[in-house]
Write a structure and sequence with these properties.
- This protein has a domain at 3-116: Jelly Rolls.
- It is built from seven helices and eight strands.
- The chain has helices at residues 3-11, 16-25, 106-115, 117-143, 146-156, 166-172, 177-189, and strands at 27-31, 36-38, 46-52, 55-60, 66-72, 78-79, 92-95, 99-105.
- The radius of gyration is 18 Å and the shape is elongated.
- Residues 29-116 form the Cyclic nucleotide-binding domain.
- It comes from Gemmiger gallinarum.
Length: 191
């Protein structure tokens, strides 16, 4: 699938001029598990969109412990490591499975958004969706039991419990891996 077909299918972009410019600017890459797409502290020189696979965003806490901040698995999910295009990434983004990405240089995408307001609307929607996901996670972590958080994860991220390491899921849900293992066993055994 080329970039224009991907953008038309996933984002509903129909304007042939936009699709042509995206196709000219985009690079599609097959990526391996463990590939770091964006490194915290480095400027984002390209915007990455997931075509296939699973990625996670992470940062280090005050004690140097790695915290999983976000998980992307739906085609079209933008790997957004900061809100400003040219600002340094706040989190690192790494592939948790092999997959495929579409990357567009930041400057070219910024120019396209100035030229085509519908791309700016799409960017705002992606930001709003990312913010909604962050708030939903915050509510789950601070207001729900460990079991409620795990059940939420199973519904929100169908099939990922078997593809993603327990330590990343546990970190994402604000618990330790031992607690997650107990919860998984309880759910599996129907307890």
């Amino acid at each position: 699938m080329d970039a224009s077909l991907f953008c038309s299918t996933i984002y509903g972009i129909k304007n042939p001029e936009i699709l042509r410019e995206i196709n000219d600017a985009a690079v599609i890459e097959n990526v391996s598990k463990g590939t770091v797409l964006i490194r915290a502290g480095e400027p984002q020189t390209r915007i990455v969109f997931l075509m296939e696979g699973v990625f996670r965003g992470s940062f280090l806490d005050i004690n140097g412990k790695e915290i999983t901040d976000c998980i992307g698995f739906r085609p079209g999910t933008a790997a957004m490591a900061s809100f400003g295009f040219e600002s340094p990434a706040k989190i690192s983004i790494e592939m948790m499975t092999a997959g495929k990405i579409m990357a567009i240089p930041t400057r070219q995408l910024t120019a396209m958004m100035r030229k085509y307001p519908e791309l700016l609307v799409l960017y705002n929607k992606l930001l709003t969706d990312a913010l909604a996901s962050q708030w939903e996670l915050k509510v789950m972590v601070y207001q729900c039991t460990a079991m409620q958080r795990y059940e939420w994860f199973l519904k929100k991220f169908p099939g990922l419990a078997d593809k993603v390491s327990n330590k990343y899921i546990a970190s994402y849900l604000g618990m330790n891996p031992v607690t997650l293992s107990r919860l998984r066993r309880s759910v599996r055994d129907g307890v």
